[in-house]
Design a protein that fits this description.
It contains 14 helices and 10 strands. A hairpin with a 4-residue loop joins β6 and β7.
């Protein structure tokens, strides 16, 4: 049977979490035969992840495929799942997250309708939910005031996104051939590549659909997570790497012809550069500020207009205040925003 959707699950030493993730997809989609799950064991060596992946594939051979590779990092594992996808659509679910049963069923029904009617939709957007570990609260990210609900649209019809509601990987279900056409270059052994995934393919997506359903559930607040502030600070060089890839993907003002998409992408890239600035200031690395300056200088040479917008707009100015006082104002402002928006 042809597969309507492939769910990719990159796993690295994920034995503690992966069963819940896989079960949530199987149960939420009623073990449907037009659903595929590709579990990518990303060179796990510290637990039973490889064996668990094989066991799941043996238990449900018509639905689940287990793929093993040498450790390459999250982005490489995601793209391995894309390469092995037999579905018309692809959605990534990280192994420590899960899906809501009713919402994922609604997503599957929507995708089936597109396939049956021959409607080409390149990107389906759904909501996601931050499940906060520290206080057992939820924060739902939806797009009701930004996107047309329940109908096919294009980038020219989007509204203005608040800083708390950008289109992260959790919200995205791509048509597989559209995602492959984007030819994403995911750097190995690099965190935060989900920003590349939620940026580079967008100009390839000519038709979109917003399903107002809370599909993706995302645990946040554990000490070992990549979005934990201390972890982020220690990996600021990963953000520098991601920013360079995003920078060189497009000359945004020249390459992106749809004004609203151009504005969205420039704003998103500006946020990534602001993150680089904030965590460079917070970093203990003695070369952090020198490396940050190199990054900004590269952007200025690559595209002066993108540089002016990212560096001298409100966000750029607020996250690059000079001197020691400026540093602490920037860091303080970030921490206030973090508490208000609760994004990590």
């Amino acid at each position: 049977m042809n597969k309507t959707i492939t769910f990719g699950i990159p796993c690295y030493n994920s034995a503690e979490y992966m069963d819940h993730c896989i079960s949530s997809i199987l149960e939420g989609t009623d073990y449907a035969e037009d659903v595929q799950i590709v579990i990518v064991d990303d060179g796990s060596t510290k637990d039973e992840t490889p064996a668990k992946a094989d066991e799941w594939a043996q238990r449900h051979p018509s639905i689940i495929k287990a793929v093993h590779q040498e450790n390459g990092g999250h982005g490489v594992a995601v793209m391995k799942a894309v390469a092995n996808a037999d579905g018309v659509y692809f959605k990534n679910i990280d192994s420590d997250d899960w899906v809501d049963a009713d919402a994922v069923r609604a997503l599957l029904d929507t995708l089936r309708r597109f396939v049956e009617l021959g409607e080409r939709v390149d990107l389906v957007i759904t909501n996601y939910v931050y499940e906060h570990v520290e206080d057992a609260t939820q924060n739902v990210v939806d797009y009701r005031r930004v996107l047309p609900v329940g109908k096919i649209f294009n980038w020219g019809q989007i509204g203005h996104f608040a800083m708390s509601q950008y289109l992260l990987m959790h919200a995205l279900t791509y048509r597989v051939d559209t995602l492959r056409e984007a030819a994403l270059q995911m750097p190995p052994h690099t965190f935060y590549v989900d920003n590349i995934y939620a940026y580079v393919p967008f100009p390839k997506c000519r038709s979109l659909f917003y399903l107002d359903a809370d599909v993706y559930r995302y645990f946040i607040g554990r000490d070992d997570q990549s979005v934990n502030e201390k972890v982020l600070t220690s990996r600021v060089d990963h953000y520098w790497r991601v920013a360079r890839i995003m920078m060189r993907a497009y000359h945004v003002y020249d390459d992106i012809q749809i004004p609203r998409l151009r504005s969205y992408m420039m704003n998103y890239f500006t946020i990534i550069m602001a993150i680089c600035s904030v965590f460079s200031k917070m970093s203990d690395r003695p070369d952090a500020m020198d490396e940050l300056k190199k990054l900004w200088d590269e952007l200025k040479v690559y595209d002066p207009r993108m540089y002016r917008r990212a560096r001298h707009g409100v966000v750029g100015l607020a996250t690059n205040l000079p001197g020691t006082v400026g540093k602490w104002i920037t860091i303080g402002g970030y921490r206030v925003a973090r508490r208000v928006v609760k994004f990590n």
